[in-house]
Amino acid sequence: MWKAGFKGALGSTIFAFGALIVSILFSIANPDTNYGRLVKFVIGQQEFLILHKNDCKLKSANEDCIE
């Protein structure tokens, strides 16, 4: 019985590793897509700046901004 459980766990691990490799290959092929940016963020190669919704950088040039 434990052999079947071990085989299932091993198969799941191999599948997850294969999916990770395919995911990385897709992100390398298309680095400027949202998916490519997400993979770079998860791996740690790219950082993102999280802005508050009222930040002046998000307003158009026509709007007044008080910092």
Could you give a quick summary of the protein structure above?
The longest helix has 28 residues, at 2-29.
Question: Layout of SSEs?
Answer:
Layout: H1 2-29, H2 34-43
Report on the architecture of this protein:
With 67 residues, the chain is mainly α. The protein has helices at 2-29, 34-43. Helix 1 crosses helix 2. It is elongated, with a radius of gyration of 21 Å.
Main features:
single chain, 67 residues, mainly alpha, elongated
Mean pLDDT reading: 78
The helix/strand series, from N terminus to C terminus, equals HH
- End-to-end Cα distance, whole Å, is 66 Å
The shape, in one word, is elongated
Computed CA radius of gyration, to the nearest angstrom:
21 Å
Major β-sheet annotation: none
Strand content: under 5%
How does the helix and strand content classify structurally? mainly alpha
Total helices: the number is: 2
Low-confidence stretches: none
The count of DSSP E runs of length 2 or more, i.e. the number of strands, is 0
Regarding quaternary structure, what we see is single chain
Helix content: 55-70%
